[in-house]
Write a structure and sequence with these properties.
There is one protein chain. The chain is an alpha/beta fold. It has a single domain, classed as Mannitol-specific EII, Chain A. It contains 6 helices and 5 strands, in the order αβααββββααα. The chain has a 5-stranded mixed beta sheet with strand order 1-4-5-3-2. Helix 2 runs antiparallel to helix 3. It is globular, with a radius of gyration of 14 Å.
Length: about 150
């Protein structure tokens, strides 16, 4: 399922981001530009971050909208933003990989479970952070979700 909504156009390599807000906005902009969500979804992603950090550990954050952001989602999608130099998510948390998600209806749970499979292995995270092409990132998600 993940590969159907993760395409090369949804992947940003070598992003230079200074703040957590900038990182979340950039991730949301990918979802907007690919037609998955309305602009309003980005604000909901920022609101969600205020409620509880989307930092997951191992240099990964999974920003997404709040419960009431469902009407801003057109179709399910994933955005991957690689930040090799890292961005500070507060409290000593450094994020090098942002995986933004937008789920239509209850598909966000399926999306999260597929992402969790990929991100459960530290070597996969390392591969994603060091990837030099969108194809490398796509192939890793495809191989795990086959």
């Amino acid at each position: 399922m993940t590969t159907a909504i993760l395409t090369k156009e949804n992947i940003i390599l070598n992003a230079k981001l200074s703040t957590k807000e900038e990182a979340i906005r950039r991730t949301g902009e990918v979802l907007v530009s690919q037609g998955y969500v309305d602009d309003a979804y980005i604000q909901k992603m920022l609101e969600r971050e205020e409620l509880a950090s989307t930092y997951m550990g191992n240099f990964v954050a999974i920003p997404h909208g709040t419960e009431d952001s469902k009407n801003a989602v057109h179709t399910s999608g994933i955005a991957v933003v690689q930040v090799p130099d890292g961005v500070d998510f507060g409290e000593g948390r450094v994020v090098k990989l942002l995986v933004g998600i937008a789920g239509k209806n209850n598909e966000h749970l399926d999306i999260l479970s597929n992402i969790a499979i990929v991100l459960s292995e530290e070597e996969n995270i390392q591969t994603l952070v060091e990837a030099k092409s969108a194809e490398e990132i796509l192939s890793l998600f495809e191989s795990v979700n086959d």
